[in-house]
């Protein structure tokens, strides 16, 4: 396996991520990345993605000098944890090995295992070792991105502990093969909780308390939903609905989020992520000829999976915010 080169291109930070420049010194701030390539592991990007300055600042610091840390990005569902890091990596042409954790995931799913494979269709399969995302990321200098990491059994996740401290990966299953960490290798994980149980474990089914020794190896980045102003700006790029309607959609979304996170409505077990908010706006535009396009689009976006009580709560929010517009 041939390793890719070291970081070889500087990107103008504020221009690359379309951030407002507040001081003259900020024009000269750069972030390291790579020349464009056809590497299939480079994440795709969205032209209308809205970056947050504090998020970019902390991700830049981590990518530049992890100093033996991994990065744990925590926040509510749909707040931009995964999209935030993949949009950054895509613009930097930094390949990413991405995997979503679950309760049955084992360390071997990250490291690799033997399996029967055929070199070509029709040829008899032979037993070969297939490298997992951790092994590939370490060897090639990619970012290992584990989504929903707090869904994984803590005992399996401890397999990362030595690797995060800069030690080589020893693959006992493959004859004791040793993979030295590439200088560009980074580990990023995302989770709805901070790995310590708490109230998030009651909200998000399957969230597990993680091992304290593992959590000690992360630096932390907490992501919440966008500000109302930022979400409105994002919706304007995604839909041609009037600013008044889009602004009210954002207000409804924030009422739902507050009720979900604070438990002000005990029956509300769903929330409105940014992706669902964008879906609502786009569907309202697509079905503008319906008797009540806002209500019809909301059904498509989220309410058809809600219970009767939840539907009534969300509908009440909509009536309060939209007033006569909500027929």
Uncertain residue segments:
198-202
Q: Count helical runs.
A: 14
Structural class: alpha/beta
The fraction of residues in strands falls at 15-25%
What is the end-to-end distance? 62 Å
Fold and architecture overview:
It contains 14 helices and eleven strands. The strands form four sheets. A five-stranded parallel beta sheet has the order 4-7-10-3-11. A two-stranded antiparallel sheet has the order 1-2. It has a two-stranded antiparallel sheet with strand order 5-6. A hairpin with a 5-residue loop joins strand 8 and strand 9. Helix 10 runs parallel beside helix 12.
Write a short abstract of this structure.
This protein has 327 residues and is of the alpha/beta class. It has helices spanning 13-16, 53-64, 81-91, 107-111, 133-140, 154-157, 161-164, 199-203, 212-215, 228-238, 243-262, 274-286, 293-301, 308-322, and strands at residues 9-12, 30-33, 70-74, 96-100, 112-117, 126-131, 143-147, 169-171, 177-179, 186-191, 218-222. The strands form 4 sheets. It has a 5-stranded parallel beta sheet. It has a two-stranded antiparallel sheet with strand order 1-2. Strands 5-6 form a two-stranded antiparallel sheet.
